[in-house]
Amino acid sequence: MATDFRDGKTFPRRGREPIGEALWLARLFDKARAAAAGTIFDYIYPCPMDKGVMERWGITPDEFNAAIGAHASDDALYRWLQTRTTPERIRVANDWLLDEKIANLDRQDSEESVTI
User: Fold this and answer.
1) pTM for this one?
2) Minimal CA–CA distance to 77: which of 31, 9, 111, 42?
3) Nearest Cα to 26, choosing from 7, 12, 44, 40?
């Protein structure tokens, strides 16, 4: 998992890339780890979309930051998330991303040269 975005050619994982059932978690994990390492470059963590997803999950940025320190793998972080939220809240966050924030996802993919 890349966490050094300073070259301008390496990017966080796509918001559409799920870990388990949770969209945005992979991107959030990458950005949070890069922010903690001082290698986030021009990304913002937590950005409004990060906050929107976390709010729908019912967690705070501080809780997420603690989790990334305690859970190094995608699977472990997803298991942590499952203890903090419900499948319904994950679905609500996913729906928000895919309905209300789809233009943002499309723009990110375009800017980061991802083909859909």
Assistant:
1) 0.93
2) 31
3) 12
